[in-house]
Amino acid sequence: GNSVTQMEGPVTLSEEAFLTINCTYTATGYPSLFWYVQYPGEGLQLLLKATKADDKGSNKGFEATYRKETTSFHLEKGSVQVSDSAVYFCALRIKAAGNKLTFGGGTRVLVKP
Amino acid sequence: SQTIHQWPATLVQPVGSPLSLECTVEGTSNPNLYWYRQAAGRGLQLLFYSVGIGQISSEVPQNLSASRPQDRQFILSSKKLLLSDSGFYLCAWTFGGGRYNEQFFGPGTRLTVL
Fold first, then answer.
1. Does A5 lie at the interface with B, CB-CB under 8 angstroms?
2. pLDDT 10s digits, B21-31
3. Inter-chain CB proximity A99 and B90 less than 8 Å
4. What is the rounded distance in angstroms from the CA atom of residue B78 to the CA atom of residue B87?
Protein backbone atom coordinates (compact mmCIF):
# COMPACT_ATOMS: atom_id res chain seq x y z
CA GLY A 1 0.00 0.00 0.00
CA ASN A 2 0.87 3.68 0.00
CA SER A 3 2.28 5.43 3.03
CA VAL A 4 4.11 8.58 4.06
CA THR A 5 6.49 8.91 6.99
CA GLN A 6 7.52 12.25 8.45
CA MET A 7 9.85 13.12 11.25
CA GLU A 8 8.00 13.61 14.49
CA GLY A 9 7.87 16.99 16.08
CA PRO A 10 7.70 19.33 17.63
CA VAL A 11 10.62 21.05 15.99
CA THR A 12 11.64 24.20 17.84
CA LEU A 13 13.87 26.72 16.12
CA SER A 14 15.06 30.25 16.52
CA GLU A 15 14.21 32.86 13.93
CA GLU A 16 16.52 32.80 10.88
CA ALA A 17 17.54 29.19 11.55
CA PHE A 18 17.61 26.52 8.83
CA LEU A 19 14.65 24.14 8.76
CA THR A 20 14.54 20.61 7.40
CA ILE A 21 11.57 18.28 7.73
CA ASN A 22 12.20 14.78 6.46
CA CYS A 23 9.58 12.93 4.46
CA THR A 24 9.84 9.49 2.89
CA TYR A 25 7.20 7.50 1.10
CA THR A 26 6.25 4.10 -0.21
CA ALA A 27 3.97 3.89 -3.18
CA THR A 28 2.66 1.33 -5.67
CA GLY A 29 3.29 3.46 -8.72
CA TYR A 30 4.54 6.95 -9.54
CA PRO A 31 3.12 9.42 -7.07
CA SER A 32 2.79 13.16 -7.07
CA LEU A 33 4.15 14.63 -3.84
CA PHE A 34 2.90 17.52 -1.78
CA TRP A 35 3.61 19.60 1.27
CA TYR A 36 0.64 21.15 3.02
CA VAL A 37 0.79 23.66 5.87
CA GLN A 38 -1.74 24.14 8.65
CA TYR A 39 -1.55 27.38 10.60
CA PRO A 40 -3.07 27.42 14.09
CA GLY A 41 -6.84 26.99 14.02
CA GLU A 42 -7.06 26.81 10.25
CA GLY A 43 -7.49 24.24 7.52
CA LEU A 44 -4.72 23.01 5.26
CA GLN A 45 -3.12 25.01 2.49
CA LEU A 46 -0.99 23.64 -0.29
CA LEU A 47 2.58 24.84 0.19
CA LEU A 48 4.30 23.19 -2.76
CA LYS A 49 4.20 20.13 -4.96
CA ALA A 50 6.21 18.03 -7.41
CA THR A 51 4.72 15.69 -9.96
CA LYS A 52 7.72 13.72 -11.22
CA ALA A 53 11.21 12.65 -10.24
CA ASP A 54 13.80 15.43 -9.83
CA ASP A 55 11.12 18.14 -9.85
CA LYS A 56 11.66 20.85 -7.27
CA GLY A 57 8.66 22.50 -5.70
CA SER A 58 9.11 25.91 -4.12
CA ASN A 59 6.98 28.55 -2.44
CA LYS A 60 7.42 31.20 0.26
CA GLY A 61 11.10 30.34 0.62
CA PHE A 62 10.38 26.63 1.12
CA GLU A 63 11.77 24.00 -1.25
CA ALA A 64 11.45 20.26 -1.69
CA THR A 65 12.94 17.99 -4.36
CA TYR A 66 11.29 14.77 -5.52
CA ARG A 67 13.98 12.10 -5.06
CA LYS A 68 12.85 8.85 -6.59
CA GLU A 69 16.06 6.99 -5.76
CA THR A 70 15.63 7.65 -2.04
CA THR A 71 11.80 7.90 -2.14
CA SER A 72 12.02 11.21 -0.31
CA PHE A 73 10.58 14.71 -0.46
CA HIS A 74 12.30 16.63 2.32
CA LEU A 75 11.12 20.16 3.04
CA GLU A 76 13.72 22.90 3.59
CA LYS A 77 13.83 26.60 4.31
CA GLY A 78 17.01 28.54 4.73
CA SER A 79 15.81 31.18 7.19
CA VAL A 80 12.57 30.66 9.11
CA GLN A 81 10.35 33.35 10.56
CA VAL A 82 7.99 33.30 13.52
CA SER A 83 5.12 33.29 11.01
CA ASP A 84 6.31 29.88 9.75
CA SER A 85 5.15 28.29 12.99
CA ALA A 86 2.61 25.70 11.86
CA VAL A 87 2.05 22.01 11.28
CA TYR A 88 3.50 20.68 8.03
CA PHE A 89 2.09 17.62 6.27
CA CYS A 90 3.76 15.61 3.56
CA ALA A 91 1.39 13.77 1.22
CA LEU A 92 1.34 11.66 -1.90
CA ARG A 93 -1.21 10.97 -4.58
CA ILE A 94 -1.36 8.08 -7.00
CA LYS A 95 -3.32 8.90 -10.11
CA ALA A 96 -6.37 6.74 -9.63
CA ALA A 97 -10.08 7.05 -9.06
CA GLY A 98 -10.89 9.68 -6.47
CA ASN A 99 -7.62 11.64 -6.41
CA LYS A 100 -7.09 10.49 -2.85
CA LEU A 101 -4.19 11.85 -0.83
CA THR A 102 -2.21 9.84 1.67
CA PHE A 103 -0.83 12.06 4.43
CA GLY A 104 2.04 11.73 6.81
CA GLY A 105 1.44 12.32 10.51
CA GLY A 106 2.40 15.99 10.39
CA THR A 107 5.31 17.85 11.97
CA ARG A 108 4.71 20.76 14.29
CA VAL A 109 7.23 23.57 13.89
CA LEU A 110 7.61 26.33 16.45
CA VAL A 111 9.81 29.29 15.58
CA LYS A 112 10.83 31.50 18.49
CA PRO A 113 11.90 35.13 18.10
CA SER B 1 -12.92 31.44 -8.46
CA GLN B 2 -13.78 28.50 -6.25
CA THR B 3 -14.50 28.58 -2.55
CA ILE B 4 -15.27 25.92 0.02
CA HIS B 5 -17.36 26.45 3.13
CA GLN B 6 -17.81 24.37 6.24
CA TRP B 7 -20.15 24.84 9.15
CA PRO B 8 -20.35 25.03 11.96
CA ALA B 9 -16.84 26.18 12.81
CA THR B 10 -17.00 24.69 16.30
CA LEU B 11 -19.41 22.28 17.93
CA VAL B 12 -19.74 20.77 21.39
CA GLN B 13 -22.05 17.77 21.60
CA PRO B 14 -22.91 15.23 24.30
CA VAL B 15 -22.18 11.55 23.83
CA GLY B 16 -25.06 9.80 22.10
CA SER B 17 -26.34 12.88 20.29
CA PRO B 18 -26.62 13.11 16.48
CA LEU B 19 -24.23 14.99 14.25
CA SER B 20 -24.48 16.81 10.95
CA LEU B 21 -21.58 18.72 9.44
CA GLU B 22 -21.99 20.43 6.13
CA CYS B 23 -19.56 21.29 3.38
CA THR B 24 -20.34 23.20 0.20
CA VAL B 25 -18.21 24.19 -2.75
CA GLU B 26 -18.86 27.14 -5.03
CA GLY B 27 -17.53 28.01 -8.44
CA THR B 28 -17.01 24.56 -9.91
CA SER B 29 -19.02 21.59 -11.12
CA ASN B 30 -18.71 17.89 -10.42
CA PRO B 31 -15.89 18.14 -7.93
CA ASN B 32 -14.47 15.21 -6.02
CA LEU B 33 -15.22 15.75 -2.33
CA TYR B 34 -13.47 14.44 0.77
CA TRP B 35 -13.95 14.30 4.53
CA TYR B 36 -10.88 14.03 6.76
CA ARG B 37 -10.54 13.81 10.52
CA GLN B 38 -7.59 15.10 12.49
CA ALA B 39 -7.54 13.82 16.05
CA ALA B 40 -5.66 15.82 18.65
CA GLY B 41 -1.91 15.67 18.02
CA ARG B 42 -2.31 13.27 15.13
CA GLY B 43 -2.27 13.31 11.37
CA LEU B 44 -5.07 13.37 8.85
CA GLN B 45 -7.25 10.38 8.25
CA LEU B 46 -9.39 10.17 5.14
CA LEU B 47 -12.91 9.16 6.16
CA PHE B 48 -14.98 9.39 2.98
CA TYR B 49 -14.71 10.57 -0.56
CA SER B 50 -17.22 11.11 -3.35
CA VAL B 51 -16.81 11.41 -7.10
CA GLY B 52 -20.45 12.29 -7.78
CA ILE B 53 -23.95 12.75 -6.41
CA GLY B 54 -24.95 9.79 -4.29
CA GLN B 55 -21.54 8.12 -4.69
CA ILE B 56 -19.76 7.65 -1.38
CA SER B 57 -16.67 5.60 -0.63
CA SER B 58 -15.79 4.85 2.96
CA GLU B 59 -12.14 4.51 3.84
CA VAL B 60 -12.38 3.28 7.42
CA PRO B 61 -15.12 1.53 9.40
CA GLN B 62 -16.57 3.88 11.96
CA ASN B 63 -19.51 5.52 13.63
CA LEU B 64 -19.93 8.12 10.89
CA SER B 65 -21.61 8.28 7.51
CA ALA B 66 -21.51 10.67 4.58
CA SER B 67 -23.96 11.77 1.96
CA ARG B 68 -23.84 13.88 -1.17
CA PRO B 69 -27.38 15.03 -1.93
CA GLN B 70 -26.27 17.70 -4.41
CA ASP B 71 -23.30 18.13 -6.71
CA ARG B 72 -21.50 20.62 -4.47
CA GLN B 73 -22.76 19.54 -1.06
CA PHE B 74 -21.14 16.96 1.18
CA ILE B 75 -22.56 16.06 4.60
CA LEU B 76 -20.96 14.14 7.44
CA SER B 77 -23.35 12.55 9.90
CA SER B 78 -23.68 10.36 12.92
CA LYS B 79 -26.75 8.96 14.69
CA LYS B 80 -24.98 8.65 18.05
CA LEU B 81 -21.69 10.37 18.79
CA LEU B 82 -18.89 8.69 20.70
CA LEU B 83 -16.15 10.34 22.72
CA SER B 84 -13.67 9.12 20.13
CA ASP B 85 -15.44 11.18 17.45
CA SER B 86 -13.90 14.35 18.87
CA GLY B 87 -11.50 16.01 16.47
CA PHE B 88 -11.00 18.52 13.72
CA TYR B 89 -12.99 17.67 10.60
CA LEU B 90 -11.81 18.94 7.28
CA CYS B 91 -13.64 18.93 4.00
CA ALA B 92 -11.69 19.13 0.76
CA TRP B 93 -12.38 19.18 -2.96
CA THR B 94 -10.51 18.66 -6.16
CA PHE B 95 -11.42 18.99 -9.82
CA GLY B 96 -13.10 15.87 -11.06
CA GLY B 97 -11.73 13.59 -13.75
CA GLY B 98 -8.17 13.41 -12.43
CA ARG B 99 -7.10 16.52 -14.30
CA TYR B 100 -5.43 18.21 -11.35
CA ASN B 101 -3.43 17.07 -8.38
CA GLU B 102 -4.22 19.64 -5.74
CA GLN B 103 -6.88 19.27 -3.07
CA PHE B 104 -8.36 22.44 -1.63
CA PHE B 105 -9.34 22.39 2.01
CA GLY B 106 -12.09 24.11 3.93
CA PRO B 107 -11.54 25.93 7.24
CA GLY B 108 -12.57 22.90 9.29
CA THR B 109 -15.02 22.13 12.10
CA ARG B 110 -13.73 21.46 15.59
CA LEU B 111 -15.96 18.89 17.26
CA THR B 112 -15.79 18.17 20.97
CA VAL B 113 -17.85 15.28 22.30
CA LEU B 114 -18.39 15.37 26.07
1. no
2. 999 999 999 99
3. no
4. 14
